[in-house]
Amino acid sequence: MIQIRHLSKTFVNPDGNTITVLKDVNCDIEKGEVISIIGPSGTGKSTFLRALNMLEPPTTGEIWVDGENITQKGYPLNKLRQKMGMVFQSFNLFEHKTVLENIIYAPMELLKSPEQQAKEEAMELLRKVGMAQKADVYPASLSGGQKQRVAIARSLAMHPEVILFDEPTSALDPTMVGEVLSVIRQLAKSGLTMLIVTHEMRFARDVSTRIFFMNEGIIYEDGTPEQIYEHPVHSATKAFVNRIQKIVYEIDSDNYDFLQIHTDINRFCIKYNITGKQDLAYWLLKEMLFTHMRSLRPLTFRLTHTELTGTTALDFMVEHLTESPLTDAARESIRQQIKELIEEPTTRGFRVKLII
Ligand code: ADP
Ligand code: MG
Questions:
Q1: Which ligand is nearest to the CA of 17?
Q2: pLDDT in tens, 101-152
Q3: 3-state class of 20 per DSSP?
């Protein structure tokens, strides 16, 4: 359906310096594929999507869609944009139009749909994304997750063949990520061709037929989720997909802000979709800080989560400590609550690690 050949993009900055963001991108995309594009920031993922629908015309190379070279001079961009919808991180809704008006605008203007038909279709789409009851309100009264669901419905209203999503959940409060991802999951099942730039590793693995790992302006690695996540060929891919999220605290006296830590743990658990572990993490933290390791300061506490494997750990490190601070009774009671308890000397001290 889409063929991309030797695509490059070079920007010229106001100071005259040039920056080549896309170097030599090549790929073929079949109808019905759901492709997630992952990779470090600044590697050209957004530029790639924007080049695909000619928001950012490429410097060199060709893009073929349904057998037509869209990079050719004079190719009708309206036709292209109708085929290829785009959903942005920042929603881009018309603030002075109601939800329903946002959705019917483009079909009426560009597809010349009769108003009644456009409205009926819009309501159908709003029901699909769970927003039908908000049809008559203005975007300002919606939450970020609701705005994004409206933006998705708006893009669907043009009957696109492909939808490009550029980090559709990055601007959202963590509590709203789920509702938007579930709408995208549902679309993926419907057979629509989609390219999704995302940082949500597990979502990408679950929803995609293929993953592009972009790095340094090229598609560095291209494969099934299994290949990319379980057997990556390149070490850069491996390092990226196995990256560990963490929060770290140096606790050097009893005057630390425990409420702040609690709030941070809460947000962390929501962000990485592990709210089920939150109460246990908090209970263990209190047990360790207030009881078993009460007299041990300074202490470094780390909460880590490996998104891909779903492994969450609390890690307590004390310098110059030579043996475990846990009594047999403490060890027993903790073990019953968690998956694995590791007590180990480190080069600088001693660590107690609780895997939950
Ligand atoms: P990603 O989406 O992977 O984070 P982007 O495609 O947004 O990366 O950007 C890649 C690089 O291109 C960045 O260094 C960015 O500063 C630069 N860039 C993007 N758009 C422009 C532009 N319009 N003019 C100049 N530089 C740009
Ligand atoms: Mg980007």
A1: 1
A2: 999 999 999 889 999 999 999 999 999 999 999 999 999 999 999 999 999 9
A3: strand
Residue 298: per-residue pLDDT: 93
CA–centroid distance, residue 157 to ligand 2 (Å): 25
CATH number of the domain at 290, please. Answer: 3.30.565.10
- pLDDT for 45 beyond 90: yes
Inter-axis angle of helices 278-286 and 258-271, to 10 degrees?
A: 150
Phi and psi dihedrals of 315, rounded to 5?
-135, 125
Same domain? For 287 and 154 the reply is: no
Q: Which of 11, 89, 165, 170 has the most ligand 1 atoms within 8 A of CB, as the residue to mutate?
A: 11
The two beta strands, 349-355 and 340-345, are antiparallel
Specify the ligand 1 atom closest to the Cα of 48.
Answer: 6
Q: Residue 157 contacts by C-beta under 8 Å, 6 or more apart in sequence?
A: 103, 104, 106, 107, 118, 121, 122, 125
**Does the pLDDT of residue 172 top 80, yes or no?**
yes
Residue where a domain terminates, one of 241, 259, 281 = 241
Same domain, 334 and 293: yes
212 and 279 housed in the same domain:
no
216 & 268 share domain: no
Domain of 129 in residue numbering reads as: 2-241
> Does the structure show a pLDDT above 90 at 58?
yes
Do residue 30 and residue 66 come from a single domain?
yes
CA distance 189 to 122: 20
- Residue 56 CA: nearest ligand 1 atom is 23
Kindly give the distance from the C-alpha atom of residue 194 to the centroid of ligand 1, in angstroms, as a whole number. 22
Contact 194, 34 (CB under 8 A): yes
Distance 168 CA to ligand 2 centre (A): 10
Domain count, the chain: 2
Kindly give the number of the ligand 1 atom that is closest to the alpha carbon of 41.
Answer: 4
